Amino acid sequence: MKNKHVNAIVVGSGAGGGVVAKELSYAGLSVVLFERGGWVRYAAHGNDELTAQRSFPLACFFGPDNERYRRVAVDRQGNERIVFPNDWAYHNNAACVGSGTVNYGAMGWRFMEEDFTMKSTYGHVEGSTLEDWPITYADLEPYYEKVEWEIGVAGDDYQNPFAPWRRKPHPMPPFPHNTEAKLLEQAAKKIGYHPFPIPMLRNSEPFDGRPACVHVRNCVGFACPVDAKNGTQNTVIPKAIETGNCELRIHSQVVKILTDSSGRAKGVEYFDRDGQKLTQTADIVILSASATETPRLMLNSATNLYPNGIGNRYDWVGRNLQGHAYCGADGLFEEEIYDDFGPGSSVAVCDFAHNNPGIIGGAMLANEFIKMPYAYSSGYRPPGSARWGREHKEFQKNNYRRNASVRGPVQEMPNFESRVEVAPNVLDHWGMPVAKISGFKLDEDIRTAEFIADKAAKWLEAAGAYKIWKNIPGTGVSGSQHQSGTCRMGNDPQTSVTDKYGRVHEVDNLFIADGSLHVTNGAFNPVLTIMALGYWVSDYIVKEWERGNRFQ
After folding, report:
1. Residue 29: enclosing H or E segment and its boundaries?
2. What phi and psi values does residue 368 have, to the nearest 5 degrees?
3. Which of 184, 322, 351, 388 has its C-alpha lying 20 to 30 A from 522's C-alpha?
């Protein structure tokens, strides 16, 4: 049976797409929300670390699965290899209702004012495509507030002297510190840092009909056992469905954006859960599939009018792929500092996010989430430590409760050669050319990472760690859980993919609302900004719709 025409299609139910579906539904538009995965529940996964999104040596419980998905990874020497979702080189985002907001760590950071004006603040950076955003923090501030109060954020930015201005406090108080965070808080003050509680998209008290966090250790990388972690799957998407205006189609893989003879988007082609190839038409199409899957879909939607992919007249679709150059330091303590009070990460400093002499940008620094045993053994050991055998087991037994880690997401400089392409000769389960990911970090990123890691080591030293080692990122492309930048917004169609409202320059009724829009990725976890952009893009669409603009 032919699908009924609707006002809007939203592709992807993550941080941006879930917000867009809710806002358009509330405005009275008929919406179909496509999600390639399904609903996931904690009971089906529990605390199985080997399938958690942060470890997954076996498979990714939250998807995508190894059976149907693959990508091509290109190293610095140009060598290509096929990779699967449980390989870090895949640069995976979850494939389920809510996407990464189901299993993320849930840090709810606003970007700082400087994060929107990096080019003006720091000038030209050699080898980079660094630019200012076409919008400012002031433009986005009301939408940050809306995220905090509709999705739910616990925090107190008034304790952070470097926080950007705000009109309204967070709706929930911040989380208390565990033993490790208390130790780090006092150490930070001792050396002149300015510690404060991390804002979290997690309930510190009952909120919007859901309970408060119960402080389990298995949080980041896992679903929440009591539904206290706030993602689109348990906030805006159910509300969108309740309006009767939004239909959620799960296990539906969108493979192409359809266009008419004039080049306007008229719908999408997709495979349903039974493997049937179907078409859905709409007045508007909004892409929220992630900063790797959104450009892949656009590039795979080439036509005679768009021979290089839709929206790609000037070869900017897929370019400027950024993640974060994560760095920091680890330390061992004589005494046990682990008290099993999760999720662990709760104290941060923003002293080095900007205004570091001789350094471009910077990063916030925070203590890490509780590291489950496998993750600890594989990623938080001193260099050269044993990875197997008796020595490995003894180290794990003696030091697991005596370790602390401090990390920071260094804001990478975008560059034109870090990118998402498609590999026409490598197809996924549905016959769609897969994403090919290549690129590198600039020397400037590594220099900044070394600077930030030094500050992390100093913090651990002040806390009393007797052995400290630094963690410096490699030079390869970074596009994993914080991927962004591949369809950047801007005022000039020759150097950007969309306008400041997320509308693709050459297609009036095609929008983007995910991390692809980011011109730069901030010195913070980007999810709150992606959600805020979801509200920003939706607000523009709704206002135009109410003025009588049907984007036809």
Report:
1. none
2. -80, 160
3. 184
Q: What is the DSSP string of 352-408?
A: TSS--TT-S----EEEPPPPPHHHHHHHSSPTT--SSHHHHHHHHHHHGGGEEEEEE
Tokens 């590594």 correspond to: 446
Q: How far apart are CA 428 and CA 420, in angstroms?
A: 16
Task: Quote the CA–CA distance of 292 and 21 in Å, as a whole number.
Answer: 20
**Do 425 and 436 form a contact (C-beta atoms < 8 A)?**
no
Distance CA 365, CA 406 (A): 6
Rg (alpha carbons) of the chain, rounded to whole number: 22
Average pLDDT, the chain: 96
Distance CA 10, CA 286 (A): 5
The predicted-structure confidence for 246-286, as pLDDT tens digits, reads as follows 999 999 999 999 999 999 999 999 999 999 999 999 999 99
- Which CATH entry fits the domain spanning 1-45+91-153+230-323+412-439+476-552: 3.40.50.1980, 3.20.20.140, 3.30.70.330, 3.50.50.60? 3.50.50.60
Q: What would the pLDDT profile of 498-509 be if each residue is shown by its tens digit?
A: 999 999 999 999
